[in-house]
Amino acid sequence: MTAVDASLSSSAHVAVASHFNRTNVSTWPVTAFLVCSITVQPLYASLSDCIGRKTIYLSCAALFLLGIGLAAVAPSWTCLILARCVCGLASSGLTIMGSVVLTDLVGVKKRGYYQSMNYVNFGSASALGSVSGGTIVDRFGWSWLYKIQLPFALVTLVMVYFFIPWTIEASEDMSSRDETTESRRLLSLFDWTGAFVLVISLLLLVFVLGTAGNVLPWTNPFVLLALLLFPCTVYALVRVEATAQKPVLPPVLVQFPFRNIMINAFFLSIINYIVMYNVTFFFQAVLLETPAQASTHLVAPSIAFTVVSAISGATIARLETPKPTLRISQVMLLCGAVGLMVMATILPRTETPGALYNLCLAMPILGVGMMAPSALLLLLGMSDRNNHATLNGGFIMMRSLGGFTATSISTTIVQNVFQQTMRPFMTSEEIKKKIDSVRLNMDNLQTLEEPLRAQVVNAYRTGFIVLFGLVITLSVLIIFGFIGVSDGQVVQETPDTAEPGSVTEMEDLMGDTDDSDG
């Protein structure tokens, strides 16, 4: 359900924004979704330990249904953004609780088999959403992106209620009074101040990245104020996290070699989201495809990610180390980044078959799909089991932060470069209005006369060249970031170091045989 929702949003967000004449800020609903998702991520798993898995799972399923319903009837751009905030709060819980409950129900030993099934389901859902998003908007209207999800969201809620057992909620020897006391204790220990400061920092960052030079000039007082306040909130966050009992961003995350892996996870997620959330924009703006045609190009990278992730997990389990796949993924990622640059610079000038474009899109995602599980398993393997939950949560949060940053900065980069490139051609007020109309609604590009349309297309292509140049830079930084890390020794743990009751992600793929977890 969450995979379909995410892929529908990524494949049709430009078309939806065009309906509201907001193409220049098309990623704002996505950014709002991610900000809310990041905010509550640390809370769900901790709360479920005390008030029960099913309670949290059921609440998130109901909240997701509400968010989808609100998005389906949103009368304005602002209402749509607010509805996607609700979806973000719920989707994060569905994803986390699905992972935790899976381990609770099947155990760590059997987790690998069911995780493979999850990869297949996720990939199939992503491909389905990718190929259908543009078509749904073209034929039925943008609201049907969410209306069509309502029955499935309702089925999800019903299935969670009837098929997730209550018996996994709490320890059998814990009374209701003990559960209430423990829940209150947990809520009192949660880093509410850190979470609040983190959200404020993210909102300031998204405001600058999403509006500066795009919606508002860099000299705007609000932009300057946000630029001034952002480093202050980051400093405050560091001070708060240093003294918090259960910090949202634990200090262990900034220690070597974990720091390097976390930063690389952040960069990796930026690359992934830049590709997945700008594919339709690229093909509509540069190759003049319809939303339905543009969305089909998301199928290849979606399937590539799913297949290579499953293969990587099996390979790591067989080799009992993630290092070979980690090295291969670095090469694939850099080659894929170069392929994106070729796609933006050379291929539009030639008669190129669609399959070659799909190959250029799939290559970096293959690198992402192989590197993500490899980096996570290396991270867990280099630490003792007591830090697994913290490091795994930090890894997920850094990837979420990367996605949030990518969706904010990618549109701003393309739109800023577009405006700078088109500035010499704005020789009259009429031409300026036509150019602005394209920035607000991508459908207007098809109606422009030559040579203005060719100039607009070239300006957008220049914007994507700069954006894909950033992808190459990040790929190189990732390679340097793993120097000295990928050759580290994997910690071999004894049963004495295991922490009963901890839930860790994907560690079963490392050949773990201790079934005391979960």
Given the helix and strand composition, which structural class is it? mainly alpha
Q: Give the beta-strand count.
A: 0
The biggest sheet, with number of strands, parallel, antiparallel or mixed sense and barrel status, is: none
Q: Gap between N and C termini, in Å?
A: 24 Å
CATH superfamily of the largest domain: MFS general substrate transporter like domains
Tally of helical runs = 19
CATH A-level architecture of the largest domain: Up-down Bundle
Radius of gyration: 23 Å
Task: Give a written overview of the molecule.
The protein has 19 helices and no strands. It has helices spanning 2-19, 28-51, 53-72, 77-106, 111-140, 144-147, 150-163, 176-189, 192-211, 221-243, 258-276, 279-285, 291-295, 299-319, 323-345, 354-381, 388-422, 429-440, 452-481. It folds into two domains: 1-168 and 181-190, MFS general substrate transporter like domains (Growth Hormone, Chain: A); 254-489, Growth Hormone, Chain: A. The protein is mainly alpha-helical. Residues 169-174 and 487-518 have low confidence and may be disordered. Keywords: Membrane, Transmembrane, Transmembrane helix. It is a multi-pass membrane protein.
Please describe the topology of this protein.
Blueprint: H1 2-19, H2 28-51, H3 53-72, H4 77-106, H5 111-140, H6 144-147, H7 150-163, H8 176-189, H9 192-211, H10 221-243, H11 258-276, H12 279-285, H13 291-295, H14 299-319, H15 323-345, H16 354-381, H17 388-422, H18 429-440, H19 452-481
Helix pairs in contact: 1-5, 2-3, 2-4, 2-8, 2-9, 2-17, 3-4, 3-7, 5-14, 9-10, 9-17, 11-16, 11-17, 11-19, 14-16, 15-16, 15-19, 17-19
